[in-house]
Every structure is written in structure tokens, then in C-alpha cells.
Amino acid sequence: MNKKGLSIPVLIAIVIGNMVGTGIFVLPASLAKYGTISLFSWLFTSFGALLLAITFTFLNKRFPHTGGPYLYCKHAFGRLTGFIIAIMYWLSNMVCIAGVCLAATSYLGFAFPILNSNNPTYEPSYSLMLELAIIWLFTLINILGIQLAGLVQLFLTTIKVIPLIIIIIFGLGNIHLVNLTQFNIDNTSNYDALSHAATLTFWAFIGLEAAVIPSENTSGASAVSKATIWGTLISISIYILISFVLMGMISVVELQNSSFPIAKAGSMLFGPLGALIITIFAYISGIGALNVCLLIQGQIIFAAARDNLFPRWLAKVSRRGIPIRGQLISSTLISLLLILTMEPTFIKQFDFIALLAALFALTTYLVSALAEIKFIYQDQIPLVNKIFNKSTLIVVFATAYAFWMISSLSFSVLKFDFLTIASCIPVYYFFIKKYSH
User: Fold this and answer.
1) Beta carbons of 34 and 180 less than 8 angstroms apart
2) pTM higher than 0.85
3) Containing domain of residue 131, as a range?
4) Do residues 113 and 122 make contact, with C-beta atoms less than 8 angstroms apart?
5) CATH number of 304's domain
6) What are phi and psi of 111, to 5 degrees?
7) Is the distance from CB of 11 to CB of 231 less than 8 angstroms?
């Protein structure tokens, strides 16, 4: 792989770019159906996400190599677990890319009705063509080199946060407190509403581990740790503030019926031109997240193939150190996913993809946290020091959080976890283990 290290600013941009994608532009409308209790879901999810981010910095210090969650789980629990996690993480990443493409293209519907699923002139085929075009554009950028992809990401991340900061600054002066009094309108208990909203908000936190994936292309574990923590904290601040502003500016009923909540806020603050500019920035935000996801997918495939858990020919890299074959296969599969899941309405397709991505990511995070618990147990230090160590407490709470989040998902979503594991086991024993050396 290319040994020229990605700088800390680029790594921070990778983390923010992966987390602050399309979710914050779409989720406020999905969360409005629960009421302002969803603001507490953001707080809860943010706390759990930060614990997971810190856990990944611990793991990266132990194994500062390309692969991230797959690598940690393989070292902790063996090659079978490593193979399953590699598949799940790969699937999560591909599903995320599909979701990002959907949300980014849908947001352009504010300016181009033909891309708006709520408009009579909507043409799903046009949306699909645009989604496929941006996937393959950024696939090409990533094939040209990880340094180029990193620089593109730094530029896109800088661009994407500008409109969000502007909305936060000007929106704080336009909050109507009456809008914040609609606490729970879901007709369920506060616990259920909080839990259901939290599962949706987690979509926005997928990718918090992004900086650990290309570890061999960084300047070291310290840079990765700083980027992971700062990237997560900045993303959390943006999420909570923008959600608070939107719910304060727009009534819950009006918000949940809006396909373009941040564009609507832009229109209220700056008029039609402001809304149009916000829409363009939302699209840029989405494709920025897409760029990171495509970068990550190539690194995961490379790491697993290098260890003979994926076909060895996928470990072959170009002169620029890029696993081109893995990139091309992933982008092809993502294209097929978008084609096969095409729906007449955006929200129906997006909600399914968001929950599926959250499931696979949470499973990966849970097993990674359990791996760190095992490593702590194996450390050659007194047991009392292990139990009362601050690091141990962080990892234990991170594990509990990931388990709670998974348990809050419905069986209709959880079944995909079981199906994936059930499919991976025979593949591993009859093909991977049998033919790898």
C-alpha cells in the first residue's frame, strides 16, 4: 500500500465526511414523527457513538494496520469471525453508499422536480442514472489514488459544513419555543419513542471509525486517534445543534411532511435563493460521504484478501497502491442494489436501507468492542487494575450501548443479521478454509 501518510486534517475530514453526509439533511423529517423527544435520542446516540469511537482508538493502537474492525475481530476471535465481520462491514459500507446516493439525489428534487418522488413529474429512472453516475465518478477518483481521494475529501468536507453552520447561527434567532413543546407525538411510551428514534439517528453515526481503516496510509496511531475523536465530536456538535434549530424553527407536523427540511429552513431564513444554495450544498455533502465510503470499501477488501479470507487476487494493488479490482466489484454490486431496490417513493427505500446499514454497522461495532474486552483481559496487568481502569469502563459501556441499539431493532431487520451469519459459515468452511493456506 501507499506509505505516504494522510495528514490529520485529511483524516478528520474523512471522519466528518463519512458521518456528516446525507443523514442530517434527511433525518429531521423522519424523526419529527416522534416529536422533540428525538433530540434526546441524538444526545443518547452521540454519547454511545463517542464511546465506540474511543474504543476504536484503543484497538488501532494495538493493531495499527489496514482493516479496522475486520482486523481486530480476526485477532480476537479467529478467522471465521474475521471473515463474517469483513462481510458484514463490507455490506454495511455498500448499503451506506446506496443510501447516500438515494438521499443526495432526492435532495436535488427540491430544485429539479423530475427528481422529487413527491412530484407528479418524478422519473425514477432519471434518479437512478444520476445515482449510478456519481458512484462511478468517485470510484474513478479513488482508483486514481488514496492521496487524491483524501484531498478531494478535505475540500468537500470544508464545503459541506458551511451551510450547516450558517443555518445554526441564523436559525438560533428564529426559534419558536412552542414548537419544542411537542415532546412525544408517537402514541407510544417515552422509552419506545426514544429507542425507535435512536435507531434512526444511528444512521448518521455510521463511519465514526473511518480513520482507522486506512491505518497503513497514515502517519501513525496518534494521528488516527486524534482524527477519530475530533471528527466524532465535531459531527456530534453539528447534529445536535442543527436538529435543535430545525425543530425550533419548524413545527413537528410541518417538519415530518417535508422532504427537504434544511432547504425549508434555508428558505425561511434567506428566501428561495437561499433554499436553492442549501440544496446544492446538501448534494455536495452527500457525495462527500460517498467518496469516503468508496475509499473504505477498497481498504476492507484489500485487508481481507491479503489474509486469504477473500480471494487472493483482490489483494493485488495498482502502482498507486489501490486495490482496483475490489473497488470495481463493490461499485458493481452497489449499482445492482440500487437497481433492485428502486421504489416509487424515496422515503420507503431510504428507511429500509438506513436500518439495514445500521444493523450491519452495529453488529460490527459490538463484536469489535467485545474484541477489546478480550484484549484487556489478556493484558499482563493485575486484575484489579483491569476492572477499575478508565479504558475498561469506556469499552464496557460501548459494548452495552451497541447491544442495546441492536436489541431495539425489529425482527424484520434483525433477520438479515442471522441470514448473513448463516450464509457466511458454510462459505468459510467449504471454500475459504479449504482452499486458503
Assistant:
1) no
2) no
3) 8-435
4) yes
5) 1.20.1740.10
6) -100, -25
7) yes
